[in-house]
């Protein structure tokens, strides 16, 4: 049996009860933290909370050398841990398909996602989000500008009056996380006066949600990661009110965004 368990968004307490129960029954627990991280905890704290030993896998262990996981899952109960929801990343879907090819039973224990949290914290309606995109560090793609694919996604969504969730780059091995201010500065070159919303430390006891023009967000310090950025499309009047009340959006920044 191979069970994929989502750890939620922030720390060791973010997991569901079903997730805790699955871990307690496991013969082997593995985890990957290269697609995302629980920035509110440590591996040691996670292990202590669940009273288990966790084997942390590198990308190659999951994508290129998964045989160890699958071989064990043929006869034992293996739990595969990830931040957020375990099936958001395509690499985890691939692992599940490999298990199915070997007639290994699989089970999923869902965790909440950054996209759900972004909608919940900002008050932006979840069905008004279009395609999401990821903004990489400039060094990651060999250029000093925002990739065309990112701009195309934002532009396409804005034309359709939809919101864009922008995931911010993570360099797991270097413990480097893009901040909302950096993302705003990068996007500001193309969208200086465009409204955006920074969502920081979703899932924690003190999340930060701030809405303003990108040029203003670029000057702010939002503290510890993880951060997200939302570029809104057209706003329903309730969404506009939510950004003012929940994200301190200046009213003048909302001009032209109402339906």
From TrEMBL:
Molecular-function GO terms, alphabetical: diphthine synthase activity
Reactions that this protein is recorded to catalyse: 2-[(3S)-amino-3-carboxypropyl]-L-histidyl-[translation elongation factor 2] + 3 S-adenosyl-L-methionine = diphthine-[translation elongation factor 2] + 3 S-adenosyl-L-homocysteine + 3 H(+)
Keyword S-adenosyl-L-methionine in annotation: yes
Enzyme class: transferase
Domain Tetrapyrrole methylase: 1-217
Annotated source species: Halocatena salina
Family the UniProt entry places it in: Belongs to the diphthine synthase family.
Positions contributing to S-adenosyl-L-methionine binding: 9, 85, 88, 113-114, 168, 202, 227
Protein name: Diphthine synthase
NCBIfam families named in the record: dph5
Pathway given in the UniProt record: Protein modification; peptidyl-diphthamide biosynthesis
Any one GO biological process: methylation
Assembly and interaction partners: Homodimer.
Function noted in UniProt: S-adenosyl-L-methionine-dependent methyltransferase that catalyzes the trimethylation of the amino group of the modified target histidine residue in translation elongation factor 2 (EF-2), to form an intermediate called diphthine. The three successive methylation reactions represent the second step of diphthamide biosynthesis.
